[in-house]
Amino acid sequence: MTIIYAAATAPVNSPGVSPVITMKQLWAGLELKVRYPQLFLAVIDTCDVLEDDGETVLREVKFKDVGMAPVIGPKVQEKITSIAPISVHFLFPSMGNASKVLNIVSSGMDGELLLTFTFEWEHKEIEEGSEEAVKKQNQYQETAPRGVAGTISAIRQMVKDGKL
User: Fold this and answer.
1) 113-123: strand order across its sheet
2) Cβ(80)–Cβ(101) below 8 Å
3) Of the candidates 70, 80, 99, 74, which has an alpha carbon nearest to the alpha carbon of residue 35?
4) Concatenated DSSP letters for 27-45?
5) Rounded distance, CA 117 to CA 115, Å?
6) Which CATH number goes with the domain that contains 48?
7) What is the model's pLDDT at position 75?
8) I need a surface site. Which of 39, 72, 135, 155 has the fewest CB within 10 A?
9) Are 146 and 153 in contact (CB under 8 A)?
10) What is the reported pLDDT for 98?
11) For residues 31, 69, 7 and 88, what is the CA-based torsion angle, rounded to 10 degrees?
């Protein structure tokens, strides 16, 4: 058994991009992603919010037949806790394992807005330190930056469209 880790950080407002996303807009986008992930991830077919107390959401996500999220499978329940305006924690209780994802908002030395995603995927079927573990690590680390960039891009489009 092993846990595969991956992480990626990107500036929310790279030089020359327009419109500039504010902290308030970024957080509103991340909150929207909790309840409507299909607006951000093309592999998601549907999302049913089962419980929502404003800070913690229990949702069931169904993935499209064309692709599945790593480790998760075609359908999964996620428990998501928002700690405004800094982080969103995704846990997968229905899987009965230690997999989790974090979306973290921070700022750099010059005050620039940053978005970081961290991933911890439990793989009971993979031996720690094995060639397969290294291969999975490389695969997850390769996809992590695309996840951050895709989320920022979707939020920027929503800002352009006046939806955030």
Assistant:
1) 2-11, 113-123, 100-107, 87-91, 75-83, 56-63, 44-52
2) no
3) 80
4) HHHHHHHHH-GGGT-TTEE
5) 7
6) 3.30.530.20
7) 84
8) 135
9) no
10) 78
11) 20
DSSP 8-class letter at 94: G
Per-residue tens of pLDDT for the chain, all 164 residues: 899 999 999 999 999 999 999 999 999 999 999 999 999 988 889 999 999 999 999 999 998 876 555 556 678 899 999 999 999 999 987 666 778 999 999 999 999 999 999 999 888 889 999 999 999 999 999 999 999 999 999 999 999 999 99
68: number of Cβ within 10 Å: 14
- Type of residue at 152: I
The token duo for 97 is: 């394992």
* 34 phi and psi angles, rounded to 5 deg: -65, -45
Identify residue 122 by its one-letter amino acid code.
E
Angstrom distance (rounded) from CA 79 to CA 131: 32
Could you give the number of structural domains in the chain? 1
Q: Which two tokens stand for residue 96?
A: 């009965």
Tokens of 152: 């920022």
pLDDT for the residue numbered 43 = 84
The parent domain of residue 14 ranges over 2-160
